[in-house]
Design goal:
Order of helices and strands of chain B: HHHHHHHHHHH
Largest interface: A-B, 63 and 57 residues
Shape of chain A: elongated
Number of strands of chain B: 0
Oligomer: heterodimer
Bound molecules: protoporphyrin IX containing FE
Helix content of chain A: 25-40%
Number of helices of chain A: 9
Distance between the termini of chain B: 21 Å
Structural class of chain A: alpha+beta
Strand content of chain B: under 5%
Structural class of chain B: mainly alpha
């Protein structure tokens, strides 16, 4: 199936994948934001349509998986057929081109010259200074730049396939989840999420939250959240202790536990000794609990942090704003008429994210490959050939100096930069050879000519796969399906 | 913000506006072209150096890496656009891109200076951003966005030189409309659904028209040499921007994994960056598959520009934020 290995298909698939991800970026996803958010944003009717079409869970839809599958098949097929085989060609020595062949290169020039090897030495040094690697044979030389850039597609594509492998391993063997835990509570992994094809197993140990606290900037904005955790075996033995914070997780037995959010959960108070729990809600920078007293009046408890006093407000329907009645701390009760209000405890909850990701090392290797690969792709691969030779045929006007210096080259990427580079070399050579404008030096073709020249180039000679166009034998498998 | 930092920033902003006018003039007066171009370049260099100084001063003042909010990222963006233009003009000797690069930098300065004071002030970071990963993750992204902008704009000049005026005008109008939507979303309380429609509608219609009208050529204006030059510049910008975007996305993943335990969570902005990445991957493969004309590639770079704009500024200002909404201030 030649189409499966075609770059045309790659472009189409990449574009379709991009469009699909775009839709997924625009529409809130159930897995991340929950169904309520979608209904809230679009209204029940539109939401239903979106949900039924699979748009609200687009990254798990058969359509998306199909695209990823096709991309993989396409990449494997294409790599086998045309990317990896080219590696072999990199090892083959470059041919030395002669005058006529140099004349066919996209950028080329012919300068009259004495049969003087020092010119070649000059060219050699000039090119070497600009990073070219040079081989010389008699009166000819070939120079190459950026060969390593040819490894780009191989390394990138191997990286992408490795990434897919890593992700698959994780999805089949890993698990993850999030749980808000109260100080003193415990985190276990029973209700963790994992994929349908899961073949992993859950640890039997669990994690106890000993304490948890928030550190603030002087302005009152949160600076950091801390939670002290103890890993406990099923029989109750402590196995490991650590204080975690954002960006500083605990790792144990392949499972990582992260500080991902933090809040005050509830307030334990007592009214004349009678305990009562008041749930706190976040209101901007503070937390508040509401206790209705009777029709139209309400007590509000406002807390900033664990260490700050709890402020008690009253609000009646006919008042504009709540009135501050009293403040209390854990040691200092408040007296409201005949009632003694005592703050027993301000209980925080720590948001713990956990995950076990056995494919991670593979994924990281893949990341490395991909980064190196795409960086290599920025390096242009360039060749320059130079050859000193007598006039090509009898009826050719003999050069005044007897010989001609042929110089030419090509670069698949950054063509104009390359053209400027070679133009620079040719100008300097003219200086060196003391050629005046108007002499019979044939100038390198103008860019226009190069363009039309490139346009004519058959798609077969798509790249700089070697051996060169003149050397026969191998024809790179580049034909499109 | 200290006096010194303000002075540097203002010099940079002013320079970008000045170099814009000088470059425009250089295109108008063909006699003085060379001199004016040199002056334009000189002013741009002054702007670039003072912006570098401003960013360093800000970092020293804040005692942290100066790339933590929208205002600071706009400074970086302008810095990258100016720096990239200076580098390109060195190796390509291109001048026409000069006024466009200056205009882009000036627009970003203007956008930045309109932001409320809370963005200009140096504020402490929220817990999620306190990490050395921030300086590894964000700069490559901002620089890649700048490269993609330049690539798109070079594509515009390519279209101009290739005589594709109709497509070019459509594309320019589209970008202006998209940018307007972003500005309205940032500074006014316009309904975000409306703005999303404006951005998406303009992009879709503009792209379709630009492609459809690609065969309309004004033959008198065709300058093959110039077209080839700017096609190459555009490709160069993408060839440099793409690895940077890749590094930015991957380091973002490493950071997220380090901080939250998952390297990818399909957060809207994350997904949008992936869309941009996939589109440029498509661009790169279109290049390899040689049947695509330079003009078509310019239009693909234009689509890339729209996606980059969406990723960088669009998502927060059009109300699609998600996890990365600290780029937002309303
Ligand atoms: C999924 C199917 C894909 C196929 C079939 C495919 C195919 C190809 C082919 C045939 C080449 C040219 C090789 C050569 O010139 O020797 C190439 C180059 C490349 N591909 Fe892919 N590719 C795919 C996906 C991707 C993706 C998703 C990326 C993302 C980064 C990517 C990155 C690259 C890079 C960086 C190059 C080198 C480009 C250059 O040298 O300018 N490929 N690909």
């Amino acid at each position: 199936m030649p189409i499966l290995a075609s770059v045309k298909l790659t472009v189409v698939l990449l574009a379709l994948t991009a469009a699909t991800v775009l839709v997924g970026a625009w529409c809130p996803q159930e897995a991340q934001q929950g169904r309520e958010k979608i209904i809230e944003q679009f209204g029940a009717d539109t939401a239903k349509i979106l949900i039924d079409c699979g748009i609200t869970d687009i990254f798990h839809s058969p359509w998306f998986l199909l695209l990823i599958g096709l991309l993989t098949v396409n990449m494997v097929a294409c790599s086998m057929q045309r990317v990896f085989p080219k590696l072999r060609l990199l090892k083959q020595p470059l041919p030395f081109l002669k005058g006529k062949e140099i004349g066919k290169l996209p950028v080329n020039a012919r300068l009259p010259s004495a049969n003087d090897a020092s010119i070649l030495v000059y060219v050699e040094q000039w090119l070497r200074k600009r990073g070219f690697k040079i081989k010389r044979q008699d009166n000819c030389l070939v120079a190459e730049y950026g060969k390593i850039g040819r490894l780009a597609p191989t390394i990138t594509h191997i990286g992408l396939l490795t990434l897919l492998l890593g992700v698959t391993v994780t999805s089949w063997c890993g698990f993850s989840g999030f749980k808000p835990v109260l100080a003193g509570g415990a985190l276990s992994f029973e209700d963790s999420e994992h994929s349908k094809l899961w073949i992993g197993k859950l640890p039997r140990w669990y994690v106890r939250v000993d304490t948890t606290r928030r550190e603030d900037h002087p302005s009152g904005d949160p600076k950091q959240w801390y939670t002290h955790l103890t890993v406990v075996s099923p029989d109750g033995t402590p196995l490991k202790e650590q204080e975690i914070s954002v960006n500083n997780p605990l790792s144990y037995d392949g499972v990582d536990i992260y500080q991902s959010s933090w809040g005050l959960d509830h307030l334990l108070v007592s009214f004349n000794g009678k305990p009562r729990q008041l749930d706190l809600r976040q209101m901007g920078k503070t937390y508040a609990a509401f206790l209705p007293l009777d029709e139209g009046s309400i007590l509000i408890f406002s807390v900033r942090g664990q260490k700050t006093p709890v402020r008690i407000f009253a609000k009646r329907a006919d008042w504009d704003a709540p009135k501050l009645l009293a403040e209390m701390t854990e040691n200092k009760p408040a007296q409201l008429g005949a009632v003694t209000l005592r703050c027993e405890q301000i209980v925080p909850a720590t948001g713990l994210q956990y995950k076990c990701d056995p494919g991670l090392p593979i994924t990281y290797v893949a990341f490395g490959f991909i980064i190196i690969g795409v960086m290599l792709a920025a390096i242009p691969h360039r060749h320059v050939w130079v050859c000193m030779a007598p006039p090509p045929s009898e009826n050719f006007p003999p050069a005044a100096a007897g010989h001609y210096l042929y110089i030419g080259g090509r670069s698949l990427k950054a063509k104009v930069g390359f053209q400027r580079l070679l133009d620079g070399l040719i100008a300097q050579l003219k200086d060196e050879l003391r050629i005046n404008p108007g002499d019979d030096a044939e100038k390198s073709p103008k860019i226009d000519d190069v363009v039309s020249e490139l346009g004519k180039e058959p798609a077969k000679d798509e790249s700089l796969a070697f051996p060169s166009p003149v050397a026969s034998g191998h024809s790179p498998a580049t034909g499109e399906g | 913000m200290s006096e010194l930092q303000l002075a540097f920033t203002n010099t940079a902003g002013l320079s970008s506006v000045m170099s814009f006018w000088v470059f425009v003039a250089s295109n108008g007066f063909s006699k003085r072209k060379e001199l004016l171009t040199k002056i334009g370049l000189g002013v741009m260099i002054v702007g670039f150096l003072s912006l570098t100084a401003a960013i360093i001063a800000r970092g020293i003042e804040a005692q942290r890496f100066p790339l933590a909010n929208l205002y600071e990222s706009l400074l970086w963006f302008a810095w990258a656009v100016m720096g990239a233009y200076l580098a390109l003009s060195r190796s390509y000797g291109i001048n026409q891109l000069g006024w466009i690069a200056s205009l882009t930098a000036a627009t970003m300065f203007l956008y930045g200076s309109w932001l409320p004071a809370s963005q200009h002030d140096i504020t402490p970071l929220v817990p999620a951003l306190v990490s050395y990963w921030r300086q590894i993750h964000v700069p490559p992204l901002i620089v890649s966005y700048a490269m993609f902008f330049l690539a798109g704009l070079s594509g515009f000049i390519q279209l101009y030189r290739a005589g594709r005026l109709f497509s070019l005008i459509t594309a320019v109008v589209t970008v202006v409309l998209a940018l307007t939507a972003v500005m309205l979303g940032t500074f006014t309380a316009t309904d975000t659904t409306l703005l999303q429609l404006m951005f998406a509608g303009a992009s879709l219609i503009g792209t379709v028209i630009a492609f459809a009208k690609l065969d309309t050529v004004d033959k008198a204006r065709v300058d093959i040499r110039g077209a080839e030059l700017y096609d190459d510049v555009s490709y160069r910008c993408i060839a440099i921007g793409f690895p940077l975007l890749t590094i930015g996305i991957i380091t973002g993943g490493l950071w997220a994994n380090h901080a939250w335990g998952t390297y990818w969570s399909w957060d809207p902005k994350e997904s949008m960056a992936l869309v941009t990445w996939l589109s440029y991957a498509a661009y790169i493969h279109l290049r390899i598959h040689r049947e695509c004309s330079a003009e078509k590639l310019s239009l693909v770079a234009f689509i890339g520009l729209l996606l980059t704009l969406m990723t960088y500024l669009g998502f927060n200002s059009l109300g699609l934020g998600g996890l990365h909404s600290y780029g937002k201030f309303k």
